[in-house]
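Quick illustration, no need to memorize.
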Amino acid sequence: MATEPASFENTIDYENDPVFLLHKGGKLEVRSTIPVRNKDDLSMAYTPGVARVCTAIADNPELAYVYTWTSKVVAVVTDGTAVLGLGDIGPAASMPVMEGKSLLFKEFADLDSVPIALACTGVDEIVETVIRLAPSFGGINLEDISAPRCFEIEDRLREALDIPVFHDDQHGTAVVVLAALTNAARLIGKELSELRAVVVGAGASGVAVTRILLNAGIGDIAVSDSKGLIYEGRDGLNPIKEALARDTNKAELRGSTEEALRGAHVFIGLSGSTVQEAAIATMAEDAIVFALSNPTPEVEPDVARRHARVVATGRSDHPNQINNVLAFPGIFRGALDVRAHTITEGMKLAAAEALADVVGDDLSEDYVIPSPFDERVAPAVTAAVSAQARKEGVNRI
């Protein structure tokens, strides 16, 4: 039996708890794709035959995408500093989540992936390590790396590598939020350009959601952090928040989130904080509330529905779940299918549009985003991302 952590001593029956039983031995394994039945198979799969393939790749590195697994394998990389809602729990404790991410890549997009938990947290160390690992993979999915380091890590890796690099906590969330908001706006009869939104939380997901909404043409958007609304000239802003201040809050609002919500059309919570019902009640008619902190939303969905037309959460036990699995498998599949050397903003917008279109004429208050188990989702996102990559010329095939 595993050694029990001190804080959980005698509280978990590891041998009978169904969650622990499901995870026992891990959730992944490596299987061969060809049989080795005799010495002829062995001589081709390994030495001496394998030397011919190695030599060919050495002469023409492009052949690695045909004759190795790199064309369909993603590295899922973390340092364990921002795992789910658990925070900085370290690389070993992050592995069940990373294995889960790899499982989702396989289940939803038939992509193999390898979870990699790094025993370092310095930006330079992480960047250098991933660069050294990159020749083994077709793409890099960064996961659960705390802000603001995650922004620099992704930017530097995108600059250094010629394969897709994607921080899912940022961009997966952003794509799904945009898709859901597109449909919610359609439901209430408004264009995105007519909406004023308030985003609570200026971490990885909050910044990315804000950026994709700006790129999609949102009317105005104000962002708040633990110190209140972000605006130009506010003391103590880091470079990421300074850039947000320049690009958001056209109304020049100051003060609290609650003050900003007065008359706002959209609330998007990505902070883990609490917003009172009284503040939601001051929003515009046909308000849209995305309370996405998980497991405890910023405002309880049943409470939000008293005042909002559309309510979404990050939970699976309520309608309109904003779940990253709707985005990242298809995005990577689409990028790898055409051997894109990067994932562009246009590809993310195309993914969001395709995801929104899956809902189609079935749009309703409780259905602004499809289920992760809707079999149309991954193919639609894959096709849109591949097409956009070709349109922008970032594809190799």
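The domain at 24-31+61-163 is CATH 3.40.50.10380 (Rossmann fold).
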